[in-house]
Structures are given as C-alpha cells and as structure tokens.
Amino acid sequence: MIRNRKSARRAAEASVRRARTTVSWLGVTATSPLIVQAFKAAVAVGIAWTIAPFLPGVADDYPYYAPLGALVSMYPTLMSSVRNALQTLGGLTVGILLAGMVIILSEPNVFTISLAVGVGAVVAATGWFGANREYIPVTALFVLIVGGPNADGYSIGYLVQITLGILIGLSVNLLFYPPLALEAVGHQLAHFRETLADHLSEVADALADSWPPERDGWASRSQDLVEVGRAVRAAVSHADDSRKGNPRARTKGRNLRSDYDDLAALENVTFHVRDLTEVLAGAVWGLPIQLELRPELRPALSRTLHTLAELLKDWDPDDDEQAAFAEAEASLQLLMTELDERRSTAPATSLGVASTVAMDVTRILAALRPRILPADEATRDATPVG
C-alpha cells in the first residue's frame, strides 16, 4: 500500500509538472509577436467588415475592400504600419489617376489599358510606394475593367473603404498591445558577444593543439561572424523603429543609443577577429596567403586569445568588467614583451604572424575599452602601443 501511495504521488507530481510546462508554453506562445499580430489582424478585419456596409454613398457597394485595408496596415511596428499605410494610399491614388487619364483622354481598350498598367508598373518599380507598390498597376486595371462605366463610383468606393480599413487596422495596432521589440536587443547583443568569444576560444585551442591543428572549422567561419552582426544590426534597427510613437516605450525604456555603440564596437571587433583568423589560417595551411608562425610563440598567442574570449563572455553592460579587461591587457602586454625580446634574435618575417595578431588584439581592446571601462578610466588607460 505504501508503494502504491508513493507511485500515485509521483504520478500526481509528474502531472503537475506537465501542466505547469504546458501553461508556461501556452503563455509564451500566446504572447509571441507573431501570434499577437495575427490576432490583431483578425480583429481588425472583423471590425472593418462589420462597419464597411454602413458607409454612405457608393462606398457601401464595395465593403470587401475595408478588410483588405485592415490587412495592409498590419506591420510589426507602429511606425512601419503608418509608413506602409501612407504608401498604400499613395499607390492607390496614383493607380486611380492613371485610370482617370485613360477615361478622360481616350477610352478603355486593349492598348490604353495595357499602357496604364505599364506606366503603373514603371512607377511601382521606383520603390517610392514601399512593399505594396504593386497596387498601382492593379488599381489602374481594376478601375478600368471592374469599374467599367461606373469607374468614378468604383474609384471613390475603393479608396474610401481601403482608407476605412487602414484606419481601423492602425487603431487596433495602437490600442491593443502595440509591438515593442526592445527585449530582443539585449539577447541579440549577448549572442553576438558569445559567438565572437566562442570563435576566439576555438582559435586559441587550435594554437594549443598539435600542429597543424586537427580542428579547422574556425578557419572557414569568418563569414558567419559577419552574418551574425548583420542580424543583430537588423534587430537593433527594428527595436528602434518599434519604439517610435509607441506608448509602451515610455514604461519600458531602453538606451538604444548605448546599444548602437555596443554594436559598433562588436562590428569593429569582428573585423579584427576575421583578420587574425585569416592570418593564422595562412600560417597553418598557407591559404589564402602563405605565412610562418614560430612554434614557441603559439602558447603566448593562445593565452592572449583565451583572455580576450573570456572578456567577451563576461561582458555585462550593466557592470564594469575591469578585472577581465585588465587580465586581457596584461596577457597582451606579455605577448608584446616576448615579441620584443625575440626581435633581436629572430628574422622579422618569422615574427610577422604573431605581431599581426598582437596588433589585432590591441585594436580589439581599443574598440572595447570605451564600452567596458568607465569614461574616465577609458580615457586615462588609452595609451599607445609601440
């Protein structure tokens, strides 16, 4: 009986854990930006379809365009929604004007309709009207073919209903949980730092392994670092756009100016990390350039890159990582001292690889110094290397 009670208790505890996991998953999923945006689009379309038949005049003959207007106004940020809405209305106006010119100056036929659509496509190709620029030739075509003899009434109804839907979509987007993408920035920057740190650690491990190193993935991963940087810049730019005109940004503030500065520093770091990677790959395999690295210098280089990787891993934007930075600088200084001692006995060409890596590390620390150390210490400690 005791065994049965224990089994029942364990089963109950397992059920509770599964329930908590399910609730947590549902909570995260229900508040994900895509789900929220889809829900808001559905609500906006429903409201637009409900209100559209009550518009006066010829507009009530074309209620199905209001839901379309609600859809085209639904974008991931408020500013992009407003921008796209204005571009859409501008494109519709241009298409209607093209169709009107055909009706006034001639009459709809194969030649004039094709001409209006062609001119509309050329205007759309300029990119002035954003993602929905295709509405320009489509609108001209619809007014001339669908509108036909009632082209003026169709144009008014089309434009009025689209405008109604856009206004409803913008209102729903503004009033109901307006999208704000500030939290993702911190995660993206942390991922960028971790990616750079992991890459440097792998290069450092390769220097400490047997020569040539068995692990060679680091030598071909430079472009991946660039792609990560581009993704992070896109995330920061998206977050910047999401806070414009967003009332939620007042309560969930984030210093995006500092994030942009951190991103610029990490992009600078990426450039020098790629450079030292290329130089070390040349020393190992002679590609893309054939270089020489003296074996006795590899331990010092490995140690320096490891401390640099640790600096990036331990970097906390809300804390001054002075100890990690000081350790990286000390390791670099030891490397520079060793290079100075060997310059009198070794040819300059044999020290070229190590000197280049040392200079890259120096520039990396120079890029990170203003972002990690307090302003007064960053200025005071920025001493030239030579």
What does this structure look like?
With 386 residues, this protein is mostly helical. The protein folds into 3 domains: 30 residues; 140 residues; 193 residues, Four Helix Bundle (Hemerythrin (Met), subunit A) (Up-down Bundle), CATH 1.20.120. It has 14 helices and no strands. Helix 10 packs antiparallel against helix 13 and helix 12 runs antiparallel to helix 13.
Summarize this, please?
This protein has helices at 2-30, 33-51, 65-72, 78-105, 110-125, 135-147, 151-175, 183-208, 222-243, 256-285, 298-314, 322-342, 352-372, 375-381.
Evaluate the radius of gyration: 31 Å
Show unreliable segments: 8-14, 16-31, 382-386
Please describe the biggest sheet, giving its number of strands, its sense, and whether it closes into a barrel: none
Structural class based on helices, strands and sheet pairing: mainly alpha
Q: Quickly name the level 1 CATH class of the largest domain.
A: Mainly Alpha
CATH fold annotation of the largest domain? Four Helix Bundle (Hemerythrin (Met), subunit A)
Shape type: elongated
CATH architecture of the largest domain: Up-down Bundle
Strand content: under 5%
